[in-house]
Structures are given as structure tokens and as C-alpha cells.
């Protein structure tokens, strides 16, 4: 009796995967777009208070983090090009650099937040409660928006870590790198959000 042998083929829908990622990115842009709108409304209402409060932020650390994310965006894009050319080792190096830069960003943010907390400039602190309503709103929005962005950084690092693991185990190749490409799209989103956050919070005072 003839036996039928079935060969399992991995089902892939790269177009659907990329479309799903773009839809997710769109929802994230709506989320942060709403937050930017809220910030703009309150900034217009409490212009002087926001001006005073913004001077408490460390522009230097913000600028360093901007540079860090811009470089990380470049390295993850280069890793996609590297794997397309079947340069696995180079792709791993570039992804590791991206992961490291993301960690540097979080370390900088930790020290920046730590400095604010040390000076009791955080929502609900006794000092902040003595400030004007506009200044209270500024620090509330600052911690919420940068905290939410930091959470996205952590998610991005998890994705990059997973991609590195998959790449090491030859699950990502020059013919199958959609998860790397989607992770790159997500990371560019994280960078883009910060590109708006930095001038909004630190520079436009």
C-alpha cells in the first residue's frame, strides 16, 4: 500500500505581517498624537508655567539620548541590509549595538528621572504640590510621556533580543527576515516619537 508522506512547509505571509505592523504603528501614532495634542492645549493655556517648569529639564541628557536613538535607528537599518546580503555576523554585531544603545538610553533616562526625584520634582511630591497648576501639569505630562516612551524602548529591546536569538539559531536568513524588518519598523517608531518628544519638552520653552 502506497503511503503518503506530507512535507511540512512553514506558512509565511510577509505582506500580511508587514501590514499588521503598519496598522499597529498607526495606532501608536494615534496614541502619542493624542498626548502631543493634550500637551499643546495645556501649554497654550499655561504658557508661562510650562516655560518655567521646562527649565528644570536637562537638555544635555535629552540631546545625548536623541543622538543615541538616531544612531540606533541607523544600526538596525544597517542590520536589515546586512542580512539581506547574507552577512549574518555583521547583522548580529549591528543588532547588538542597537540593543546596547537602547540600554544607554534607559540608563540616561534613569539618571535624569533620578535627579528629578532627588529634587522632589515628581507628580504628587510635596514640592510639586506647592507649584502652580500649570507646572504640576507639565511635570505630570513629562513623566507620563517619557515613561510611556521608555516602556516602548523596553518592548523594543525585547524584540531586538528575540531577533538576535533567532538570528543566532539561523531562524532569520536572507530569505526570511520579516521579523527583523518588523522589529526595525517598530524601532523607527520609537525613535520618531522621541524626535517629537525632545523638542516639545526640552527645547520649545
How would you describe the overall organization of this protein?
- With 205 residues, this protein is mainly alpha-helical.
- The protein has a single domain (31-203), classed as Four Helix Bundle (Hemerythrin (Met), subunit A) (Up-down Bundle).
- Helix content is 80%, strand content 0%.
- The chain has 7 helices and no strands.
- It is elongated.
Topology (elements, then pairings):
Elements: H1 14-45, H2 47-54, H3 59-84, H4 88-118, H5 126-129, H6 133-168, H7 178-203
- Summarize the amount of helix as a percent range: over 70%
Oligomer: single chain
Largest sheet geometry:
none
Q: Span from first to last CA?
A: 82 Å
Compute the CA-based radius of gyration: 21 Å
Helix count equals 7
Structural domain count: 1
Give the integer mean of the pLDDT values.
91
Q: Tell me the overall shape.
A: elongated
CATH class category label? Mainly Alpha
Number of strands: 0
Structural class: mainly alpha
H/E series: HHHHHHH
Strand content: under 5%
**CATH architectural category:** Up-down Bundle
Pick out the low-confidence regions: 1-9
CATH fold assignment: Four Helix Bundle (Hemerythrin (Met), subunit A)
Task: Fill in the keyword field for this structure.
mainly alpha; 205 residues; 7 helices; single chain; disordered N terminus; Four Helix Bundle (Hemerythrin (Met), subunit A)
